[in-house]
Design goal:
The protein is mainly β and about 120 residues long. It is built from no helices and eleven strands. Strands 2, 4, 5, 6, 9, 10 and 11 form a seven-stranded mixed sheet that branches. Strand 5 and strand 6 form a beta hairpin.
Length: about 120
Amino acid sequence: QVQLVESGGGLVQAGGSLRLSCAASGSIFRINSMGWYRQAPMKQRELVGVITSAGGTNYADSVKGRFAISRDNAKNTVFLQMNSLKPEDTAVYYCNAEIALNYVTKRDYWGQGTQVTVSS
């Protein structure tokens, strides 16, 4: 069984910074892409950013230049550094990973979510 456990959310003032972490554990053969999504109240879940196993990254336009994704492959962990936070960044942030369980089986996994609240 595979689990993704997030940490690092909280309350911060506009202009501040937070760093989220997400650690994968369990019967993991290989982790392909890892990423972060967010869902604000009354809105659909949206992609924040993604990082491939080779380290390539892609971000939503709304966070480019402010957020940065990185990963520690040895620890099966992905990070989201969030700078210059805005009230509109307030949401529940979810970690996502595409994980290969063996040579032929891969599945999508989600974390439980961590609340990020940015006050104006």
